[in-house]
């Protein structure tokens, strides 16, 4: 933008402000709510509603106990942010694309699987800890769903009622929450903090590449979560005990890498808005909302944010080989690693994942637009800034 254009646009904003303050109707209120007839979600365990469970590893009891009263394919005691999001749009909970039993994709589909990364991981389940369904594969699955769902709809009847209508693909909300495991893979794969940090641009490139391909298939409203404060999770603080802590007890350098990821993600979205001008991109600062739960838990009705509710052992109640739902032998008897008394006042569920109570808290904050760029509420996320 040239110098004179800057002055002109500053002048225009000044006039706009005058106009706003001198009239009783605030123009942003005039934005209509969007019609999002479907949701297509991409991500990891933060938003997996049953993909990894259906394909590889179902979580066992006490997962799901708070809301579903049984394991429900989610790595939580209950619902996830994506569940609250779907509900707030008046939709049923999203079916996992990989689930072949009883699914209904008429309101969209969920391609997220727990342990997914953006980049191809080195160690894939069962040889290692990461999901084979990394973001490139999730895109390929979306491609399949988009074309085959229309063939199935043509069969009519019950088949049609299980698949999204063709026009839903351009009207849908596309949601993303992925990247945390790319950082985790580096931290647990013996890379130094600096090496993980240095891998961030390549991770972000992988993200942008997939966004462009999903846009080419018709996505126009994209709601993108940044990554959370990984250094506040028991699986980091318990595994790297010598890490320097910040004033609230989170591993500082690990959070610095997450913040660097978020900075690069935000920049990438600025570029994507230029490259893909027909789309509305919303960057959602989930990091800040989650961090506030660690910083001021009491203020929001929570306690012990750094301690896993369901787990065993040590200061953080977390031991990777005796995790939530495992059966372990203590003093010769077998016991289930179970839940704490009151998960509704806890932030962390199992050392890696958040409780339903925390997910609801995060959703309530982010749906208002207060943590978004542009600052539009969820229901207006189809409007381009
Ligand atoms: C799939 O879900 C939609 C929306 O709830 C419903 O109208 C349709 O009947 C469902 N299809 C089946 C076969 O249950
Ligand atoms: C990390 O290093 C340790 C010790 O050298 C080794 O046992 C472990 O296999 C390494 N992990 C990975 C993922 O390379
Ligand atoms: C990560 O890299 C960025 C960009 O080079 C740098 O500004 C930041 O200080 C680095 N952070 C860490 C924790 O190494
Ligand atoms: C973690 O759990 C395993 C299995 O119960 C146990 O053998 C090990 O001692 C525990 N580690 C710590 C540090 O408590
Ligand atoms: C195991 O036995 C020891 C010694 O009797 C006891 O102090 C400890 O509390 C027991 N642990 C559990 C989990 O029951």
How is this structure best described in words?
By secondary structure, this protein is α/β, with parallel strands linked by helices. It has a single domain (34-380), classed as SGNH hydrolase (Rossmann fold, 3-Layer(aba) Sandwich), CATH 3.40.50. Helices cover 37% and strands 9% of the residues. The protein contains 12 helices and 8 strands. It has helices at residues 3-22, 51-55, 81-88, 135-153, 157-161, 168-171, 180-188, 193-216, 234-237, 252-275, 286-295, 356-366; strands at 39-43, 108-110, 173-177, 221-225, 280-284, 327-330, 333-336, 372-373. The strands form 2 sheets. Strands 2-1-3-4-5-8 form a 6-stranded mixed β-sheet. The protein has a two-stranded antiparallel sheet with strand order 6-7. Helix 7 runs antiparallel to helix 8 (193-216). Residues 1-26 have low confidence and may be disordered. Bound molecules: 2-acetamido-2-deoxy-beta-D-glucopyranose (NAG) (5 copies). Residues 92, 104, 106, 158, 161-162 line the site of one 2-acetamido-2-deoxy-beta-D-glucopyranose.
Q: How many strand segments?
A: 8
Q: Span between N and C termini?
A: 17 Å
**What global shape is seen?**
globular
Assembly form of the protein: single chain
Question: Would you give the CATH topology?
Answer: Rossmann fold
CATH domain class: Alpha Beta
Per CATH, the architecture is: 3-Layer(aba) Sandwich
Given as residue ranges, the uncertain stretches (5+ residues, pLDDT < 50) are: 1-26
The overall average pLDDT, rounded, is 93
Small molecules bound in the structure, each named once = 2-acetamido-2-deoxy-beta-D-glucopyranose
Strand order of the largest sheet: 2-1-3-4-5-8
Query: What is the helix fraction of residues, given as a range?
Result: 25-40%
Please report the number of helical segments: 12
Order of helices and strands: HEHHEHHHEHHEHHEHEEHE
Secondary-structure-derived class: alpha/beta
Give the biggest sheet: 6 strands, mixed
Q: What is the count of distinct domains?
A: 1
Rg, alpha carbons: 21 Å
The amount of beta strand, in percent, is 5-15%
Please identify which CATH superfamily we are dealing with. SGNH hydrolase
